[in-house]
C-alpha cells in the first residue's frame, strides 16, 4: 500500500516499486522494476519487441519526495534487435538522455539555472558543478534539437555580434525583433556564419524576411543580400549607436596615447580604460560622480568633446520626421565628420556614401531593435557568471535558455 502511494507520486509509467529504503533524513532510495508484460522500447528501432539480452541497473535522481532527495534504481534492459541484429539499450522516455536524472528533475535544474548561476543552483540541489553542467547541457541539447532545428522563421530580424572571449572571439546572434527572442547563434562573425543561418532557415523562409537590422558590417550585408532577397537592410538607432560608440572609443584611445606620451597624468586618469564606459554610456544613466568626470574630461580635452558631439549628432538623425529630412541631415553630418580629422568618424562618413539607404530604410517603419541591447547586457551577465562555460556550444545553449525559446519562464518546456 505504502509503495503504491509513492508510486502515485513518481511519474514512472510501466514500472512498479520493489523496495524503498530511507537510510537517512536526506535521501530516499527507490528500487523499481518494469511490469513483466511491458517490454522496453528498443533504442535501435524505436519499437517494443522480444529478445531480452541482459539487464543493467542505473541510478537516476528524481525530484524530491517530501523534501528528501530521491534516487531511482532502474533496471535498464538491453535487447537484441531483429532489425539490425545488434544489442540496444532500451529507451526510457522519462529519463533525460546523457544525464543520470529523470526528465522531471532535469526540468527542475533547468528552471533554476535559468534564473541563477549554475553554482547557486548546484548548492540548492546538492549537486556539484560538474553534475549541474552535465544535466543542464543534456536537457538544453535535447530542447535545442526539438525546437531550434531548423531555426524558427522570422519576419523582422536583427543581427548582432557579441564578444564571448578576449582577443576578438565573437558570436553572431539573430534576434526575432517581433517575438523578442534570440532564435539562432553561432561562433564567428564572417559572412559564412550568417550564411549558415540563412541556409538552415531554407530558401522559402529567407524570402519571407522583410527587414534585417544590422550594424553595417560588410560580411553581414553580403550574406543578407544573397539570401534574404526581399528584405530591406536597416541601420537602426541601436546599431548606429554601437558603430558611433566604437568610433568615439577610437578617439579616446588615441587621446590616451597622446596623454601618455606627454605624461599628462590628469588626462590619462580621465581617458584610461576604466573611464571608457562613462563615455559610451547614455548620459541619462550616469551617476553624479560620473557626470562630473565626463564634464571635466570635455573641459580639458577638446577632441573627445568634439567626438562626443559627432556621435550625438549622428544619432540625431533618428529623431527626425521622415526620410526627406534625414537625407539632408545625413549629408550635412558626413561633411562635418570628414572634416573632423578623426579617422574613425571619417571612416563612418565614407561608408555612409553606400549605406545611407540603410539609415533611410529605418524611416519606413521605424522598427526598434533595442531588444538587442537588453540581450547583449544579459549575455554579458551570463558571461560573468559563467566561469563554468568551458565550451562555446554550452554557452550558445545558455544564450537560448536566457534570451530565447529555451527560456522556461517564457515558454512551456517539456
Ligand atoms: Zn529493435
In helices, the fraction of residues equals 40-55%
3D shape: elongated
Give the H and E element order: HEEEEEEEEHHHEEEHHEHEHHHHHHHHH
The first-to-last residue Cα distance is: 30 Å
Name the ligand types.
zinc ion
Question: Using only CA atoms, what is the Rg?
Answer: 28 Å
Q: How many strands appear in the DSSP assignment?
A: 13
Q: What is the helix tally?
A: 16
Return residue spans where pLDDT drops below 50 for at least 5 consecutive residues: none
**How would you classify the helix and strand content by structural class?**
alpha+beta
What does the average pLDDT come to?
Answer: 92
Strand content: 15-25%
Main sheet specs:
6 strands, mixed
Description:
- This protein has helices at 2-9, 103-113, 118-125, 129-148, 191-201, 203-207, 218-227, 237-261, 265-271, 276-280, 288-300, 302-315, 323-338, 343-365, 371-384, 392-403, and strands at residues 15-21, 27-34, 41-42, 52-65, 68-80, 87-91, 95-96, 101-102, 156-165, 169-176, 181-187, 211-213, 232-234.
- The model has no long low-confidence stretch (mean pLDDT 92).
- Strand 4 and strand 5 (68-80) form a beta hairpin.
- Strands 1, 2, 3, 4, 5 and 6 form a six-stranded mixed sheet that branches. Strands 11-10-9-12-13 form a five-stranded mixed sheet, sandwiched between helices.
- It is an alpha+beta fold and 414 residues long.
- Helix 3 packs across helix 4, helix 8 (237-261) runs antiparallel to helix 14 and helix 13 runs antiparallel to helix 14.
- Among the domains are: 1-93, no CATH class; 237-365, no CATH class.
- The radius of gyration is 28 Å and the shape is elongated.
- Bound molecules: zinc ion.
- Zinc ion is lined by residues 42, 44-45, 47, 49, 79, 81, 83, 88.
